[in-house]
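Quick one, tokens below. Sequence please?
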């Protein structure tokens, strides 16, 4: 299958692209590289350096490569940054995502896997969270993910675009030579490793009033390989 991977030079996108290639799919990576890395592009993928803010280039990509399915990772994803600059988040995660959906409709592409987030649930009343739990995001980042999920529902109704949204928590780990490399780094495990290696002097854990034995937070993690495989399985089972 010819698969367009938006944000394919990022952490999750690059690992997913590598697994797609190993599964004999043709992979076209679309990334503007401000937060992704050229070095993370897997060998064998077609790379287009572009921005989802450019609808002409998006549509051209669909036409020239005869895209059959989209896996959509491209987004900005720092919660604190979204609170400080919500406009930047709505432009990137909603408006640019809408450009992608428009191009799909115009080029008769009917399948998309969306890299959503458990942030759409906000503060859930029940743990573990059910998929059907109310979506009440508490920050602009989670809000943009919920809005795009709503857009997917409407584009399915109007144009028959089938979708699966994966709402996951924190991702960790590496696959082959690919791993976390955020700039600035904000993720817990890389920060711990940087401190252990002497690249950072101190490591801070925030929060001391959680309902846990020592008051610090407990987080769920999913390994990057498992998450990437989940995207492949979703693509194979979408209808």
């Amino acid at each position: 299958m010819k698969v367009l991977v938006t944000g394919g030079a990022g952490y999750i996108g690059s690992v997913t692209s590598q697994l797609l290639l190993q599964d004999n799919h043709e992979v076209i990576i679309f990334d503007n590289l401000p937060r992704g890395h050229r070095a993370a592009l897997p060998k064998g993928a077609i790379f287009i350096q572009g921005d989802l803010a450019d609808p002409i280039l998006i549509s051209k990509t669909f036409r020239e490569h005869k895209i059959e399915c989209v896996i959509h990772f491209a987004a900005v994803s720092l919660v604190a940054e979204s609170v400080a600059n919500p406009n930047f988040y709505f432009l990137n995660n909603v408006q640019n995502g809408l450009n992608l959906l428009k191009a799909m409709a115009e080029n008769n592409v009917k399948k998309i896997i969306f890299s959503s987030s458990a942030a759409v649930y906000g503060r859930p009343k029940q743990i573990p969270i059910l998929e059907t739990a109310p979506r009440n995001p508490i920050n602009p980042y989670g809000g943009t993910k919920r809005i795009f999920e709503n857009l997917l529902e409407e584009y399915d109704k109007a144009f028959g675009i089938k979708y699966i949204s994966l709402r996951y928590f924190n991702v960790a780990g590496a696959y082959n030579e690919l791993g976390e490399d955020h700039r600035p780094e904000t993720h817990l495990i890389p920060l711990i490793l940087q401190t252990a290696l002497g690249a950072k002097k101190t490591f801070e854990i925030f929060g001391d009033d959680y309902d846990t034995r020592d008051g610090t937070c407990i987080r769920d993690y999913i390994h990057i390989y498992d998450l990437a495989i989940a995207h492949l399985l979703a693509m194979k089972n979408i209808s």
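Residues 86-106 form the longest helix (21 residues). The CA atoms of residues 52 and 96 lie 5 Å apart.
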